[in-house]
Amino acid sequence: MEEAHERLIKIIKLIEEHYGRVKITPNLHLSLHLCDCSNDFGPLYAFWCFSFERMNGILGSLPTSLELLEDRPTTGSISAADQFSSDELERFWLNAKNIQESTITGCEPFPGEMLKPSSEAIMTESMLELMVAFYNASYIEMYKFRKPADEIIQDSITIRVKINQFGRCRIGSEVFGSAMSVQHTKSSYVLAKFITSDEEVNSYSGQIQYFFKHTVDLPNGQMEHNLAYICWYRPASMSESRYYFHIDDEDESYNVKLWKSKFYDESCDCIIPV
């Protein structure tokens, strides 16, 4: 254990020497306590490690790239230290750049799985309205949908009031979190493309509130839908919508679009297929 501890120290010093202090993450710091923990409590697998994971969850819920551009007051000599780390800014910029340049490709079968925490819920009246609007837009010219309490229209499909909510979703090797799972909010922020009414393609930033499954009874059988409920951020005003920064010693200047911390009013656009 002592030998492993000494080698961990050497690795972390090498990381700091070659990549700078900004690359020394909380996990690297916490790894230096593994030797003491093992000496005090025995092999790691033999005692309760949840507190370590809980600390990771708390650290992971700290401000993310969507919040890092909020105004931070700086005064005098401390202003130089009150800067955003270059890796955070680069990640934020690359996310926006990738979504702008990617191609919209239609749809495919859901390739992942929903993960706990999970619960069964009865939709509110407003949520039922949104679901009806979502299904009518999704199955346009194919089916008509209605709430259980609405007037019966010929050949209309009554949607179910129950949904199964989930806090996380796995697609491939990537796990997306949501506001429903407090320990995984860091991975709950997304960028998505929408085709507007004038056929333009715009990107919007939002936070996943929860994932959910909902089943509808179509004429040819039941169809289960894997969906996400997302609140979309309002863009900042024109005067504050651009922020320029440099990455390390590069000469090129980058800019990112800013979003307010307030959401748009809820609409059927808050419901998207996963």
How would you describe this protein?
Mean pLDDT is 80; it is low at 65-84. This protein is α+β, with helices and mostly antiparallel strands. It has two domains: 2-92, no CATH class; 101-273, no CATH class. Strands 1, 4, 5, 6, 7, 8, 11 and 12 form an eight-stranded antiparallel beta sheet that branches. A two-stranded parallel ribbon has the order 2-3. Helix content is 27%, strand content 31%. A hairpin with a 5-residue loop joins strand 6 and strand 7.
Strand content: 25-35%
Q: How is the biggest beta sheet arranged? A: 8 strands, antiparallel
Low-pLDDT runs of 5+ residues are 65-84
Domain module count: 2
Structural class: alpha+beta
Mean pLDDT: 80
Structural shape: globular
Ends distance:
45 Å
Q: What distinguishing features does this structure have?
A:
alpha+beta, eight-stranded antiparallel beta sheet, two-stranded parallel sheet, 274 residues, globular, 2 domains, 6 helices
